[in-house]
Sequence to fold (390 residues):
Amino acid sequence: MDIDKGLYSRKQQILIAGAKLFHKKGFKGTTLQAIAQEIGIEGPSLYNHIKSKNEILSTLLLSNAQEFYDRMLEIKSTSETALQKLERLISLHIELTLKNPNAMALMLNEWVHLDAEDKTKYVNLRDSYDNDFQGILAQSIAEGDVADLEIDLMRFMMLSSLRSLYAWCAKYKNFNRVELEVTVKSVILNGILKK
Amino acid sequence: MDIDKGLYSRKQQILIAGAKLFHKKGFKGTTLQAIAQEIGIEGPSLYNHIKSKNEILSTLLLSNAQEFYDRMLEIKSTSETALQKLERLISLHIELTLKNPNAMALMLNEWVHLDAEDKTKYVNLRDSYDNDFQGILAQSIAEGDVADLEIDLMRFMMLSSLRSLYAWCAKYKNFNRVELEVTVKSVILNGILKK
DNA sequence: ATACAAAACTAATCATCATTAGTTTGTGGG
DNA sequence: CCCACAAACTAATGATGATTAGTTTTGTAT
Fold:
């Protein structure tokens, strides 16, 4: 019973509790009874609001993946330099991480438990995102701002650290958001060496 | 039936198959029957070689965490500069990733399914490793080689990308190991910007 | 107040595994 | 050739947990 009943619909509460528990115990390690208990009802009562356990996971994953992709399209369409777009993408990751830390964790691993149709949708969204990300990276190499190294690997390393940030935020709760953004950008763009 | 019977003991085969399937489906999503099938026997026959499903996971995780920590102690004890030690740590991650890609994946997530005692052991090993890593990073700042930014976050970002490398290696199978090391070091040390 | 609909509850059901019991097979040393 | 012993096999057992059925409660609009 962690979630304020006044502020969220039951469906919302279920999604919030689901994200929290799926993150902590994994999808398969979380029982519907546990989710129900988290919001103060009995397990089977959940079925007044959801169709299945899998629906909780797919709602969480698809809505977040969609939000990432929508925001990517928005950033792609601006007329800035590719490097400026990369900086916006870094900010985007931080923004969405702060908004939905638990969902961010699920996007790394739990998507394997989606059923076939949703898994395809999810993987397509993620692949599109990764592709566009890499396209912008390629452009910033072409524009002379970014080093011409193995581009798959550069993209991969950038996204790995950005996608793990939720864990850092969970551990060091008293960080300053602006400082976080500055540091993350500095480490990604300039590396750790002193100049 | 993927694993050559001649080269490995049954216990080894079980560990290899377990790592593969736990990686693909998660610990809770993998049945003993599936592991058995992978090496061509029936589920209950596994009990001639193991004590429980959990033992498979804990053997995989603890032996790998221990290997990381042993190697860390070795590197700490050399008389090189802290920056040289950091480069050795990057190489170490790549070496162990190539040796045990599936186990590397498990170390990120599946440790939550260890039972209490093993989980404590595992978390202690990991925390010690992270601590020592950060100590070396602090020293290299003190030695004037590394930028004086939020040190927790720098350590976190470095380890996030290193610990995810198994996924890149799985996807781009034809990479050159030396080039991989060079690129990873360059991105971590110098960032992505062209100099 | 009263009735209806939404949302809870309790008590099945049914499937899926991990694990155990009891039995058979296969092999290497005598 | 035969005996042990390790390592398989098949057939329970028992727990767990998603989902369904059927019933009661609650809250709201008349």
